[in-house]
Amino acid sequence: MFLACPSTADLLATRQNRVPRLVMVVDDSKLQRRILAAYLTGWGFAVVEASSGDDALEKCRHCVPDMVLSDWMMPGISGLEFCRAFRALSQDEYGYFILLTSKHEKAEVAKGLDSGADDFLTKPVDPDELRARLAAGERILEMQRELTEKNEIIWDTLGELQRIYDSLDRDLIAAEKLQKSLISDTTRQFATGRLSLMLQSSGHVGGDLVGFFPVGADKLGLFAMDVSGHGISSALMTARLAGYLSASAPDQNIALHRSDDGSYRMNPPDEVIVKINELLLSEMETEHYLTLLLAQIDLNTGKAIISQAGHPHPVVQRKDGRIEHCGTGGYPVGLLENATYEQFTVQLHPGDRLLILSDGVTECPDSDGNMLVEIGLDDMLYDLHDVEGPRMFDVMLEKLADFSRSESFPDDVSGILLEFQGAREM
Fold it and tell me: What is the dihedral of CA 112, 116, 121, 122, to 10 degrees?
């Protein structure tokens, strides 16, 4: 029997309601079509008939069937040619294609498979075998349907994740600009020295921060911190801590106090770190801790008073190239209540320079996992003895990239370089 081809909307509704699948029977023999159609309708399938490959192809352009039973040898386009054309039409939804043939040669069967056929039936068709082949086809179509639905869910999820990622990426770029604005002044020339700052995060934002603030007319405060972890939460912590050491709002800078004459003077660095430790433990609900180095530099005499809280040892490179690592170590900030810190003094002479680096430098690994460590840093600084100012940091990063064989480092890298060019006569 011949049924009118249902519309696409009707067919979709039919499939959703799991009503009979649509099977197309293609054969130039009207009798053969009627026999097959009788079997199919008796088994609960909807049937559409086509008398030739051309006729079948035209009907498929309006409504693609779920399954096809097609004779191999027909006038006009053959079953193989129709199969290839059918595959080109039904790319969105898979249709199960069974060729009816009297051919038994393996080469012919292989040729049919290459043309896109899923299965074969030998004519005359045995009803039991036909029913079994159709059942196998239905299982494949059901798996295909489930796979398509799952793929749609995956694509929808990926699309939503991409939208979330794009939004986060925009936020991270904005956060990166904000963090860089905290050290927008990366170099400063003074009458007796030059200061250079460097910050390179391992991601958009990181937990390292370096900075400075003036202390009256002839002194300078320096700070370098490294908050545990990476990413946004660490960056937010550095931003908040930077507010406690602000250069633009000295009244809010806990490292400064106003003297009787109205000028600002620096509190002892070790006492300032104790206060920051108390603030971190009492006022900030966070699991982060940080390493910190705080220093006061006398720009007239070259005297540096430094307190170290778990941050890597500062390095003094003398005018003749000699390298000295100094410092007392100390506990990181935010780990121990009532922690105390020591301070020490470093004397800079004309031509000397003070270098404060985060552990992202000395702990940078090579391709085998071996870290640079202080010996490797010393070798690097010997090579950079004649490189001055911000250029020194540029070349250091190039050498660090050569060492690690990567331009991206696993940890944030930051540094302060103070080049003492000559003390004034007192």
Answer: -20
Query: 142 is written with which tokens?
Result: 């059901």
In the block, tokens 């519309």 appear at 7
Report the candidate in 360, 353, 423, 350 with the shortest Cα–Cα distance to residue 389. 353
In degrees to the nearest 10, what's the CA dihedral of 154, 156, 158, 164? -150
Q: Give the whole-angstrom CA distance, residue 394 versus residue 101.
A: 76
Quick one: CA dihedral 168, 172, 174, 175, positive or negative? Answer: positive
Model pLDDT, residue 148: 83
Sequence-ordered list of residues with C-beta below 8 angstroms from that of 203, at least 6 positions apart, any chain: 172, 230, 231
Q: Among 78, 76, 67, which Cα is nearest to 40's?
A: 67
Residues of the chain with pLDDT under 50: 1-16, 425-426
143 — phi, psi (to 5°)?
A: -65, -40
The strand pair at 219-227 and 290-298 is best described as antiparallel
Q: 0.85 exceeded by the pTM?
A: no
**According to the model, what pLDDT value does residue 6 have?**
46
Angle at 250 between CA 245 and CA 256, to 5 degrees: 70
Model pLDDT, residue 18? 53
